[in-house]
Structure formats: structure tokens, C-alpha cells
Write a structure and sequence with these properties.
The chain is of the alpha+beta class. The chain contains twelve helices and 27 strands. It is elongated, with a radius of gyration of 34 Å. The protein starts with 9 loop residues before the first strand and ends with a strand. The N terminus is likely disordered.
């Protein structure tokens, strides 16, 4: 059942500053809007902020609805971004927040709907004048209710008002709004009585059978006497003789102009009213009750979209803060120690990541250089990264790196619910060039010496936090003045091109060969540029971290 005139006079007023206004009739559904004509667009807008496939106006149960079909800057109705929204006469549509052109939606659908409703409203008895007065009273209540539903009042205030108006229109005694949670389970949200007073939501309990039957009906409205309805004996005990109810659905996202059960959108809730009267009265308010249910569904749908958008923005804000904190904990810029020059970079594949690097002095003769890669991505990996960074930075107070590694491994294995482990390379470079290191399954650093590139080690080891019995040991290498160490995470060598070929260690070694005199910042940039060129725009699937250190003879 549609609620609009079968021949609506609906037009879009396209307003460009400094140009004559253009009126485009909406003649069918879906009515497509986009930047090009070859894609079936009915309205072509040659604007930068309009995508080739931009939006559609679709006819449905609640009237005409605007749908975002993938516009890159979003769709806005009256300044608010929407994914889909039922349009009302006078609504202003824009396609980016600060654009100068707009579309004004004009429709006489509302007038046709009101005219149809007036012929169906009123009491069952009485003359034409009382019939008209009853219809006008209900019409006024409906118009007042719909204006409240689309106001900017707090959501609970709007929903309470909707229940009050629904009770007044139907002359019911009580009203209940059941709302569906993310799993689809229905829970009582608001309950009101005919005196516009709040009731405990659990004071009205429509049976499970009634709820199931309601959701199966193609018309979407169920009105029934309760005197002989065993399934509703709870309501009967509450002295209710009849009820009227309608499910609240988001509008379907398909292109059909008609609304059928198979095309319903997501279940948002149920609007339920009961009364001491019998269903004879409810039989005459089906259409207006249905109209109010459509409006209630619209406001719930928009509220959920707004809540999801708010949560998304909050998450983006929190992730942005986390990224800023994580980056602030890494060494900033190039570092210069008496016998060592160091520079590094970290590019998480999402806002925060599980890679980190560090370089700091233990004393005037020893400098720590390390890199770590926690399994996984996102906040959980970042939390473990920060914990490891804090634990290892404690080496400035002294201590045996091997004992620290074994302790960290024991701690993580005893807290297996953490669900992450880490590969690491930890080294202490003495002023005389002695390099003592502990490895934990991390890719071997490359040593650039006199134009040749070699790996420090080839045998494997265990990550920290994976095997409780793992025993870490220290190994030693002697550096020569001018030697350059290149530490990297596997996000470098495992970067893939669009054909899923990996960058690989051989390609990295070829790149570094002969670059012993290249400045460290240039060497770092060369690696990042080579990876970027190799991937040719393919999505970054892992964090990318590079640390370059060059030993020089101390004075």
C-alpha cells in the first residue's frame, strides 16, 4: 500500500548562482542523478563534487526517498549528511558541504495524501459534518506529530511525542515502542498512557506470538480483539480488549517503486497500542496509523544513521589521537650519537600499528638500536607495542638484554589471552664498534659495507610471547667505520604489487648495493620510494618500518 498520489507532481528545482533556475520533473523511479549521461542518469550535473553515479530518488512506501549511490563527497539534505532519507516538500539537497549550487525538492504528494486520508477518517456513525470534523482533528494531530518527528528535539522527546499523538489519534489507552537492537531482538524503549505520562516500559507486554504474526503480515498492520486471544492473556490481565500495531522498517535500498514484504529494509522496531475498546474503532484508523508508523520508522532510521555516524567520527578521533601518541613515542628526525648516526620512519597500514623502532643511549659509550613487529594490526597490537617500548626503554637503567627478553617472553606466554607475539631485533653498539644483539624471529638487518650488502644472520629463532620454553641468547658482530645497518619490518619485503608479487629481500639488497656514501635520510627515502613504485598503488597490507644506522669511529 502506498501513501502517495498515483500521479504525483514532483519536480527538482536546480539552482545555480547566476543562472536561470531549472525545473526537472521526477517522472519515474528510480530517478538517477550523476555527472555523466552515458550511465542512465536522468539529471546530469557537471560539477566537480558530483560523482558519475551520485544519487537516486526512489518511490517507496513512505513517499520519495533520496539515496546516496556512492557520491564521493556525500549527500546532504538541509545541511545534514544522509545515506537515505524520505524527502519532504522544500527540502534542500546539496552534494558537498560548501558548494554553491543546490536542488530544492518540490512535491504535492503530501496534499494528495491528506485528501485521501480525509475520506477515510472519522467516526463510524454521525453525519458528514461530524465526519469531517473528526477527520480534521485527526489530520491536525498527524501534521503536528510529523512536524515533531522531523524536529531537532532530543530523540526520546520526539519519540514520546510520537507515542502521545498515536494514542490521541487512535483513542487508545496506552502505547509502547519496541526497538530492535543490533541483533534484531526487540526491547521495550518507551511506554505512555492517554494522559501523556510515561509508564514503565515493561508494563506493556505484547506476546511473542503477536510480534511474530505482526512481522509476517504483508500489510504491516495488525489489529485484533484480545478477549479470546489466549496468546495475549498478559494484555488481557492488564484490562486491554484490543490492540493495533505496526512494524517499523527502514526503507528498502532496492530500486522498486512498490513496497513488498520481500523488499523491506532492516527491522527498527514495533509501534504497539492497546485499548479497552474493541477493534471496531481501530478499523477506521488503519491508514493514518500506518502513515504515523512510516514517519516513526523514518525518524528511528535517521537517528540510527546519526548514531553510527557519531560513533564513526568518535572512533576516527580516538584513532587519530592514538596515532599521534604512538608517533610521538618514536624517535623524531635524525639522531646523532658520538659514534652513531640514526634515522627511521614508521608507516602504519591503518591509523595505528604494531611496528616500532627506537634508538637511545645507555651511557656515553653504548647506544641501543632496535626494531619490533607485533603480530596483527590496530589498537590491540599498538597497546602491546607501547608496553614493549616501555619495558625496553628501561634498559637505560642498566640490565642484561637477554634476561629482559626472557622475562618479557615469560610474561606474554603467561598472559596468552593477549593473543599477540612480537618479532624483535635488539642491539647495543659500543663506541669501539662492537655490536651485541638479541634476535627474536625478526628479519635479519642488512649490513652495507664497502658497497656490499650482507645479512647479519640466517638461522631462525622464536618470537617473544609465542613459546614459553624459548631461550634467547646474545650474539656479537664487529662493525667497521662507515658500516651502515638497515633494519626493517617484513612490511617492506612483503609489500605486494597488483599481481601479488612481493618486493622481496633480493630486490632490497640490489637497491642498497653501492650506496655506502648515500646520506641516511636519502637512503631511507630511497627504500620507501622503491616500495611505493613497486606496489603501483596496491593497498598497504602491513606496517612499514625502516631504521638506518651508520657507525663512525668515535673521537
Amino acid at each position: 500500500m502506498t501513501l502517495h498520489s498515483p500521479e504525483p507532481k514532483t519536480v527538482l528545482e536546480v539552482v545555480f548562482p547566476g543562472r536561470p533556475q531549472q525545473s526537472v520533473p521526477v517522472t519515474h523511479s528510480p530517478f538517477l542523478i550523476g555527472r555523466e549521461g552515458g550511465l542512465g542518469n536522468n539529471l546530469q550535473l557537471e560539477q566537480e563534487c558530483v560523482s558519475r553515479r551520485c544519487a537516486a530518488i526512489v518511490e517507496g512506501r513512505g513517499g520519495y526517498q533520496l539515496e546516496d549511490r556512492g557520491n564521493r563527497t556525500g549527500i546532504f539534505v538541509n545541511g545534514h549528511r544522509v545515506i537515505k532519507k524520505i524527502l519532504h516538500d522544500g527540502d534542500t539537497i546539496t552534494f558537498c558541504p560548501h558548494d554553491s549550487f543546490k536542488i530544492i525538492y518540490r512535491s504535492t504528494v503530501g496534499t494528495a495524501t491528506v485528501a485521501n486520508m480525509l475520506t477515510r477518517m472519522g467516526s463510524t456513525n454521525g453525519d458528514a459534518s461530524s465526519h469531517a470534523r473528526g477527520g480534521m482533528n485527526k489530520l491536525n494531530l498527524l501534521l503536528e506529530a510529523t512536524s515533531l518527528l522531523h524536529s531537532h528535539l532530543p530523540l526520546d522527546t520526539v519519540l514520546n511525542s510520537m507515542l502521545d499523538h498515536a494514542i490521541a489519534i487512535t483513542k487508545a489507552d496506552r502505547g509502547l515502542l519496541l526497538e530492535a537492537d543490533s541483533s534484531g531482538a526487540l526491547k521495550a524503549r518507551l511506554a505512555r498512557n492517554s494522559s501523556a505520562e510515561s509508564l514503565p516500559p515493561d508494563s506493556i507486554t505484547p506476546s511473542r506470538t503477536v510480534q511474530d504474526q505482526l512481522l509476517e503480515l504483508p500489510t504491516g498492520i495488525l489489529a485484533r480483539d484480545l478477549e479470546h486471544g489466549v496468546e495475549d492473556e498478559k494484555s488481557a490481565r492488564q484490562h486491554a480488549h484490543s490492540f493495533i500495531a505496526a512494524p517499523l522498517y527502514s526503507l528498502p535500498s532496492d530500486n522498486s517503486a512498490e513496497f513488498e514484504a520481500a523488499q523491506r529494509g532492516q527491522l527498527l522496531g514495533i509501534l504497539y497500542l492497546d485499548s479497552r475498546h474493541h477493534t471496531a474503532y481501530f478499523d477506521h484508523v488503519h491508514q493514518i496509523f500506518d502513515a504515523l508508523a512510516v514517519e516513526a520508522a523514518s525518524i528511528l532510521d535517521n537517528a540510527q544513521h546519526m548514531e553510527r555516524e557519531r560513533e564513526r567520527r568518535l572512533m576516527e578521533h580516538e584513532m587519530g589521537l592514538a596515532r599521534a601518541i604512538q608517533q610521538a613515542l618514536l624517535p623524531q628526525g635524525s639522531l646523532d650519537f658520538p659514534h652513531l648516526a640514526v634515522t627511521g620512519v614508521n608507516h602504519p597500514c591503518i591509523a595505528v600499528g604494531g611496528d616500532y623502532y627506537d634508538a637511545f643511549s645507555i651511557n656515553e659509550n653504548q647506544t641501543v638500536v632496535l626494531i619490533a613487529d607485533v603480530s596483527g594490526h590496530g589498537l590491540s597490537a599498538a597497546l602491546l607495542t607501547t608496553m614493549l617500548q616501555g619495558a625496553l626503554s628501561g634498559m637505560t637503567l642498566g640490565g642484561d638484554p637477554v634476561r629482559v627478553f626472557n622475562q618479557i617472553n615469560q610474561f606474554l606466554c603467561e598472559h596468552s589471552e593477549v593473543g599477540h607475539y612480537a618479532t624483535m631485533f635488539f642491539s647495543v653498539i659500543d663506541r669501539d664498534g662492537t655490536l651485541n644483539y638479541v634476535k627474536a624471529a625478526h628479519p635479519s638487518p642488512l649490513l652495507l659495507r664497502r658497497g656490499q650488502v650482507i645479512e647479519l644472520y640466517s638461522e631462525g629463532s622464536f618470537p617473544v610471547g609465542l613459546i614459553k620454553e624459548a631461550n634467547f641468547t646474545a650474539e656479537k658482530v664487529q662493525l667497521e667505520p662507515g658500516d651502515t645497518l638497515i633494519l626493517f619490518s617484513d612490511g617492506v619485503t612483503e609489500s605486494e604489487d597488483p599481481e601479488e608479487n612481493q618486493f622481496g629481500i633480493s630486490r632490497l639488497r640490489e637497491l642498497l648495493a653501492g650506496q655506502e656514501n648515500t646520506p641516511l635520510d636519502d637512503l631511507k627515502a630511497m627504500i620507501l620510494d622503491a616500495v611505493d613504485s613497486f606496489t603501483r598503488g596496491a593497498a598497504q597490507m602491513d606496517d612499514i618500518t625502516v631504521l638506518v644506522a651508520r657507525y663512525r669511529a668515535a673521537d
